[in-house]
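Record type: ASSEMBLY
Status: queued
Input:
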Amino acid sequence: MNADSYDAMPPAGATAGEVLTRYLHERAAGFLRGLSLRGENEAEADALLRGSARRIGGALHTFGPLTDPAWAEPLRAELAWLSATLGREPQHAGRLARLLEALRRLSVAAPEGQEPVLAGGTGGAAPPAVPAPASGGPLALGAARAGALLERQLTLARTRAHSASLQAMGSSRFHALADAIAVLVSEVPLTPAAAQPAQAVLPQLAGQASQRLADAAAALPLGRAAHPYNADAVQAALGAELTADLQDAPWHQVRILLRLTRYAAEVTRAEGDTAERQRLADAARLLERHREAAESAAAVAAAARTPRIAPATAYALGVLHADQRHEVEAARFAFSRLWQPAVPGARRE
Amino acid sequence: MNADSYDAMPPAGATAGEVLTRYLHERAAGFLRGLSLRGENEAEADALLRGSARRIGGALHTFGPLTDPAWAEPLRAELAWLSATLGREPQHAGRLARLLEALRRLSVAAPEGQEPVLAGGTGGAAPPAVPAPASGGPLALGAARAGALLERQLTLARTRAHSASLQAMGSSRFHALADAIAVLVSEVPLTPAAAQPAQAVLPQLAGQASQRLADAAAALPLGRAAHPYNADAVQAALGAELTADLQDAPWHQVRILLRLTRYAAEVTRAEGDTAERQRLADAARLLERHREAAESAAAVAAAARTPRIAPATAYALGVLHADQRHEVEAARFAFSRLWQPAVPGARRE
Ligand SMILES: [Cu+2]
Ligand SMILES: [Cu+2]
Ligand SMILES: [Cu+2]
Ligand SMILES: [Cu+2]
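Status: finished
Output:
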């Protein structure tokens, strides 16, 4: 993410517009810094560009009543486009690493009698410290082939995403966006509401973002997800394509609302209590894991549709798909326990 | 199981040999009743034969010091043979039903927004009340084909097991065993130790059986299994054949020791407290579920080795295999929580 800290205190008694403008200036400066860094370190530059774009877009969304919508709405759309375009390459890379690691884990035996150390308390699967090599057999061969197939497909997707990024960065569309960001460093088109004191306006708008998050999270099947091994997420593994999407979408939505809430807190500098900040950060990490597992499962299903693959390869992909849906379920479980730690009866059952 | 209740109270002050003999008589009578029932209701008769054979063998094992080993050991071996032979047909039938139900569950979408009711507290997956039909797609087709393949293979295995049962029941080997059981109704070859008072001997031997169970259960990775989504059981899904066997064997062993403990309690009529009896019954059910899931997963892996299956079929079998290993993990989780409900730190993590 964006490592920039926004730590200069705003003047006491500032207007809402002043505080928001100050935040947007900082983030726009980060964006332009990312742009100039691109020749040196592309990955770092892109992460800075994406983080800045997401934060500017998020602030414009949450504090929408303070800026001219005729200016803000199209800018937000362009920022979302850029963020999505630049995000694809690292996503494909991360997905490939995740799936190859899962295949490795599914193919090795933990040394007998050893209890692997658990990776944190989030229910994640810790790879065994000293993996024994998988001995042969058709299933192990299938795993190797499945790994090679995924590597081929995801590397191709990554290369294409890289080309698309380069093309986007050279486009007139990006040029116009960079111009708009440069303007944002100097001036932000504010509404009359922005003239009110920051304390009178910003906490209220940030509170609305928190409320949207709370409402969306409350609508999730948290009670159900807090029961381990409910097998809900894996249920979609052989169903119609749409099944997983329908099931996952509300969780993805909460992930986005959580991000907006965290960005809003950057603007208002609402410190909250440390425990609450940590809880939001942990929740964000779990929903990120949920998304990664869900998208990795989808990539596996796509690979399984490759014509003329060997049955052993397809079998390994099936195991891997179910494993990733299992990870989806594990992330939901951990999120449910984190979000509502006092689910009645959920602990013991 | 054997529905016979062994409820006649033994005379107060009976010897150990008298109490054991009385129990063996009852079970031998059940065995002979099963034999005569076979013409009418084969399934019920076989269940009675198996339940009686397991109980006689179990009592001879736990209370071994009370009977002549030269007589008891070969008899136990023959009882184990019969029990295993008669058990195969219902096992194949149960496995097929379990796998078809799992395939159905993996292929349908739960109606959106509905939270299916959890099936008890054992972490089991409750099928949705009103399954929506799976719409097409290559994966759904693969699931249908995988179901047909499993149906073919397990029905064939079932038919073969049935023939083997019939052949066994007509064999001179079975004839000799039935003769031995008939003798057991009239006389049991006891050792001098059997002349001691029942209270001085039986609780001690039954206690040794409980201790063997407690030791074996304590050697299981219960702390690890009590962490949901540790992904241990699924780890073996693509590994060498031996991986799952090595991992599952200690759990299967505890299942057998648990059964011996419960049978020993039938002999001693140790009522225990009701809560403890219920706990052992629940534990037995969970380990039975563990075994069924593990053996079902193995049957799926075997089906996946069928030559010339379509990739979509293999893919569905891979998903199903992982699902059943997931069920193995869920059973271990539930057993761990039941067996040691106060695992430190296991609740919250
Ligand atoms: Cu919006
Ligand atoms: Cu490049
Ligand atoms: Cu023995
Ligand atoms: Cu028959």
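Annotation: Residues 61 and 222 of chain B are 27 Å apart (CA to CA).
Annotation: The two ends of chain B are 38 Å apart (CA to CA).
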